[in-house]
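Reviewer 2 asked us to include a model.

Predict the structure of this chain.
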Amino acid sequence: MRKCISKLFTAQQKVLGLNSHEIKQIIGDRPGVTVAIVMDAVMTLLGLETGWSSVLEALLSPNDLMSKIVELDVDSIDQSKIKQLAILKTE
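Predicted model (structure tokens):
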């Protein structure tokens, strides 16, 4: 769990470094498999609908999405979300 929290913290810091050009690139392109899986995991942790169309909708207001990611309370992640993440990993 500590390793996951460490990776989440690193990801949160990287999100803060995204600029508008990078966000537009994500919106404009169909993502690779890895990007799609990571974004589905992010959406799951935030309690949002998964799938690329939902990701695109969330990216329409990137500052809101980024603040939700950065403000995510890792201590409040329940077991059901962790199980959902495990399923995403095996798909």
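The chain has six helices and no strands. The chain has a mean pLDDT of 78. We have added this to the supplementary material.
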